[in-house]
């Protein structure tokens, strides 16, 4: 499959790295204004890189739109005319609705994707939404690309991408905040900064690995490590008394509300 990336920044680099590592038969070309990024993508992944849009884009079966939302419309004025009508257009831009991509490219085979930063470590999560005229071939191409950097979930309603934003989209930051707080508490109790960092990291990594391996629901896993009257029970009591569940609910609501507000800017 011939894939053209429009934008060769952090997220494009992560996806290209995933594609190369998963040994798909992808032939990768990239458009980016920055010479250093172009050189690095050629050196590290053998991508053919370009400063300008031209006929090379029209050869692509799949065009990945990986520029910031604010520059998307302007970028598509330049790039849109080169995209083949049969090509799949996969936009990874946050907050830009499918309808806007269809309008700005003049193309119909549009899929929208909401990836997250763990994609950069090969364990991302992407919400995918197929535009009204995207077909099974478009979906297969988009899924093949995003699966190279993690798990995928198709949503049947574009609004659900806001829910994905409230979960795995912004969620890594929630977990980092918890890790910061845990690490600070451990440091305060006598661990060095490095030790506290490692303990917090191992806690989250181990818990996630166990949850994945066991397939148990989270409440059961929590109960399994919480003996009545024991140490963990005391910590859980403190979290419950502080209203952790309610707080997480409010944080997710606030995130989704902001996501909906932002998408109106590009709708
Ligand atoms: N990073 C994330 O966590 C994340 C998560 C979900 C979704 N996304 C989405 O992924 C997209 C890319 O994000 P990113 O973090 O990879 O941003 P980024 O690192 O800034 O990459 C965007 C790249 O596009 C280049 N560019 C700007 N105008 C262009 C044009 N007309 N043609 C071609 N390339 C152009 C930029 O060059 P200059 O820097 O020189 O302008 C930059 O190298 C965004 O829409 C974002 O919403 C990102």
Write out key terms for the chains shown:
alpha/beta, Rossmann fold, ProC C-terminal domain-like fold, 11 helices, elongated, binds NADP nicotinamide-adenine-dinucleotide phosphate
Question: Gyration radius, to the nearest Å?
Answer: 21 Å
Beta content comes to: 5-15%
Strand order of the largest sheet: 3-2-1-4-5-6-7-8
CATH class of the largest domain: Alpha Beta
SSE order in H/E notation? EHEHEEHEHEEHEHHHHHH
Largest sheet: 8 strands, mixed
Shape: elongated
Domain count, please report it: 2
Number of strands: 8
CATH-defined superfamily of the largest domain: NAD(P)-binding Rossmann-like Domain
Unreliable spans: none
| Helix segment tally | 11
Task: Report on the architecture of this protein.
- This protein has 267 residues and is α/β, with parallel strands linked by helices.
- The protein folds into 2 domains: 2-157, Rossmann fold; 171-263, ProC C-terminal domain-like fold (Orthogonal Bundle), CATH 1.10.3730.
- The chain has 11 helices and 8 strands.
- It has an 8-stranded mixed β-sheet with strand order 3-2-1-4-5-6-7-8, sandwiched between helices.
- Strand 1 (2-6), helix 1 and strand 2 form a beta-alpha-beta unit.
- Helix 3 (69-79) packs parallel to helix 4 (98-105) and helix 7 crosses helix 8.
- The protein is elongated.
- The chain starts with a strand and ends with a helix.
- The model has no long low-confidence stretch (mean pLDDT 97).
């Amino acid at each position: 499959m011939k894939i053209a990336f429009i934008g060769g920044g952090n997220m494009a680099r992560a996806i290209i790295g995933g594609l190369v590592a998963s040994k798909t038969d992808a032939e990768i070309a990239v458009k980016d204004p920055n010479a250093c990024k172009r050189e690095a993508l050629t050196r590290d992944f053998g991508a053919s890189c370009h400063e300008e849009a031209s006929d090379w884009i029209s050869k692509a079966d799949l065009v990945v739109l990986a520029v910031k939302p604010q520059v998307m419309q302007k970028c598509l004025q330049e790039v849109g005319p080169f995209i083949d009508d049969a090509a799949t257009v996969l936009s990874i831009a946050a907050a830009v609705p499918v309808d806007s991509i269809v309008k700005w490219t003049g193309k119909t085979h549009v899929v929208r994707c909401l990836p997250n930063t763990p994609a950069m470590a090969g364990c991302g999560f992407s919400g995918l939404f197929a535009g009204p005229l995207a077909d099974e071939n478009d979906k297969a191409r988009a899924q093949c690309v995003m699966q190279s950097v993690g798990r995928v979930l198709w949503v049947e309603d574009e609004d659900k991408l806001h829910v994905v934003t409230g979960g795995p989209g912004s969620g890594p930051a929630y977990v980092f905040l918890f890790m910061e707080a845990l690490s600070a508490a451990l440091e305060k109790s006598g661990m060095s900064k490095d030790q506290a960092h490692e303990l917090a990291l191992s806690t989250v990594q181990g818990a996630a690995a166990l949850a994945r391996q066991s397939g148990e629901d989270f409440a059961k896993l929590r109960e399994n490590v919480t003996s009545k009257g024991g140490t963990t029970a005391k910590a859980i009591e403190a979290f419950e008394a502080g209203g952790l569940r309610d707080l997480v609910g409010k944080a997710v609501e606030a995130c989704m509300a902001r996501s909906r507000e932002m998408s109106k800017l590009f709708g």
